[in-house]
Amino acid sequence: MREGAGPWLGAAAALVYVVLLAPVAVVVFIAFSADSFIVFPPSGYSLRWFQRLWAHEALMRGLSLSLMLAGIVTIGSLAIGVPAAYAIARAKVPAAGALKAFFLAPLLLPTLVLGLALLMALQPLRLTATLTGLALGHMVMTVPFVIRLMVTTFATLPDEVEAAAASLGATPWRVFRRVTLPLAIPGLAASAFLSFLLSFDETVISLFISGPRASTLPVEMVRYVEGRTDPLVAALSVVLIVATLFVILVVERIAGLARVVGR
């Protein structure tokens, strides 16, 4: 690296951060606006939109459903993805490469195509606008990410540790439960964290298979902004940003964010 490139590189990185965070700063300012419509900069500041947010029945109902749905999807994705990833990476099943490609295939398709396909598949089963249908639709997106992360995690674990446990008389299940899983905790944390956020934030698929009986928070936000231009959604966005930062801090505290992302 040429001498003097350090300050220029730091300035470029700072500029990138400013460009990336500027829209977030604008949203924060608008969320505390006292105006009745979106304007920047606001003419005054108030907490009125946060107070109205908690009283908005449709958005709060969507928030409750999204939180419950994301929890179910996370558990289901781990229950399917972790054994599949272990079979691909450690059990040496036949045609492991083809099996991995099959599981990861949904990532190659646009979510618009997936949403339409799920609508056509779930509607005859009467699973549209139901919690079960939404969970299945979201898992089509989350399970491939879990498998991809956990295949990498299991592939990087040292074989010698498992072999040593097996040589001391541990059964395969005991080796997996007492040795493999504890070593894979960073990958499990990353998979759970990513599955929860992907499900909570999924909009396109939810628009296809949700309905009046089951409408997630992103769908309710889309419906709200279609006919209104007030800062209520900005206030909700600030709440979600703070909640996301809190989850990141929890993951950092439990597993270490660098280890989780590094996997």
Structural notes for this entry:
This protein is an all-alpha fold and 263 residues long. It has a single domain, classed as MetI-like (MetI-like fold, Orthogonal Bundle), CATH 1.10.3720.10. Helices cover 75% and strands 0% of the residues. The protein has 13 helices and no strands. α1 packs across α12, α3 runs parallel beside α6 (131-155) and α7 packs antiparallel against α8. The longest helix has 33 residues, at 57-89. The chain is globular. 30% of the residues are buried.
Percent range of helical residues? over 70%
Parts with pLDDT < 50 across at least 5 consecutive residues = none
| Alpha carbon gyration radius | 22 Å
The end-to-end span amounts to 28 Å
* Total of helices: 13
- Please indicate the percent range of residues in DSSP E strands (runs of 2 or more): under 5%
How many structurally independent domains?
1
The shape, in one word, is globular
CATH class group: Mainly Alpha
- The secondary structure category is mainly alpha
Average pLDDT reading: 80
Can you describe this structure in just a few lines?
With 263 residues, this protein is mostly helical. The protein has helices at 5-31, 48-55, 57-89, 96-104, 111-122, 131-155, 159-167, 172-183, 185-201, 204-209, 217-227, 232-254, 257-262. The chain has one domain (56-262): Orthogonal Bundle (MetI-like fold), CATH 1.10.3720.10.
